[in-house]
Design a protein that fits this description.
The chain has helices spanning 21-34, 44-48, 64-72, 85-97, 110-114, 146-155, 169-180, 192-196, 206-213, and strands at residues 54-58, 77-81, 103-106, 122-128, 156-166, 185-187, 219-225. With 226 residues, it is of the alpha/beta class. The structure holds S-adenosylmethionine (SAM).
Length: 226
C-alpha cells in the first residue's frame, strides 16, 4: 500500500523569474541567517532562544500570510517552508522590510522540517491554497492526505489549530471528506458563514485575490486538534 507521506512530489515550478541583483544578494545574505538549522530537533529554544508558541506554514508562496501573522504576534515564533525560489525571496523581503525577528524559513519540502518538530510543539499549522493535483490518479500527492495530516496532528498540541484554505472546488470537497473522517480534529464551523467568510487574522494573499478576480469562491477551514 502507498504511504502518502512518502509521495514527496512537488507540483509546478521550483523557480520562475530570474532573480535581480538585489534579490540574489538578499538570498545570499539573509537566508542563511533565518534558515531552519539543517539538523537536530526544531524547537522554539533552538530557533529563537526561548520558549514561545510556534506556528508552521506549509507552502507559504511569497510569504504574505506568514509575514502578516508574524507581525501580528511578535512574541510567537513562525516557521515557513516553501520550495519555490522566488517565493523564498518574497518572504525574505517581508522579513527584511518588516524587521521580523520571529520568522525562520526552510527552502524545500515542508514535511522534511515538520518531521523534526517535537510532537505537540505547535500552536498553529497553516496550509493555504495547497497545490491542487487535479487528476484523480494524483490525489495521493495532495497535502490533504492521511500521511501529511497524521504528521500535522502529531505536531500540534491539543487545542492547537489547523487552518486550510482553498479556491479549488475539487480540493474543497476532497478536504471536507478527508477531514470529516478524522477523529483527531474538530471542525470549528457552526454555520456556512464560518467557512465562506475569511476569519479574523487571516489576510488575503495575492494568490487569493487573483482567484477571486477569476470568479473563484474561497473556502476557509479551521480545525481544532483534539
Ligand atoms: C498554489 S500555491 C499557494 C501559495 C500560498 N500558500 C498562498 O496562498 O498564496 C501552493 C504552494 O505550495 C508550495 N508547496 C507545494 N508542495 C510543497 C511542500 N511539499 N512543502 C512546502 N511547500 C510546498 C508550492 O511551491 C506553492 O508555492
Amino acid at each position: 500500500m502507498n504511504d502518502p507521506t512518502t509521495i514527496r512530489r512537488l507540483y509546478g515550478r521550483r523557480s520562475g523569474h530570474k532573480l535581480r541583483g538585489g534579490q540574489e544578494a538578499l538570498l545570499e545574505r539573509l537566508l542563511p541567517a533565518v534558515s531552519v538549522p539543517d539538523e537536530g530537533p526544531i524547537t522554539s529554544e533552538a530557533l529563537f532562544g526561548d520558549r514561545r508558541p510556534l506556528h508552521f506554514e506549509i507552502g507559504f508562496g511569497s510569504g504574505e500570510h506568514l509575514a502578516y501573522r508574524a507581525d501580528l504576534l511578535p512574541d510567537h515564533g513562525f516557521i515557513g517552508a516553501e520550495p519555490f525560489l522566488n517565493g523564498v525571496v518574497g518572504a525574505l523581503q517581508h522579513v527584511r522590510d518588516g524587521h521580523l525577528a520571529n520568522v525562520r524559513l526552510h527552502m524545500g519540502d515542508a514535511l522534511d522540517v515538520l518531521e523534526r518538530v517535537p510532537d505537540g510543539a505547535l500552536t498553529m499549522v497553516y496550509l493555504l491554497h495547497p497545490d491542487p493535483w487535479p487528476k484523480a490518479r494524483h490525489a495521493k500527492r495532495r497535502m490533504v492526505n492521511a500521511g501529511p495530516l497524521d504528521l500535522v496532528a502529531a505536531k500540534l498540541k491539543p487545542g492547537g489549530e489547523f487552518r486550510l484554505g482553498t479556491d479549488d472546488p475539487t480540493y474543497c470537497r476532497w478536504s471536507m471528506m478527508v477531514m470529516n473522517g478524522r477523529r483527531d480534529f474538530e471542525w470549528l464551523a457552526e454555520s456556512a458563514k464560518d467557512f465562506l467568510t475569511r476569519p479574523g487574522g487571516w489576510p488575503e494573499t495575492r494568490y487569493e485575490a487573483k482567484a477571486r478576480r477569476k470568479g473563484h469562491e474561497v473556502w476557509y477551514f479551521r480545525y481544532r486538534r483534539l
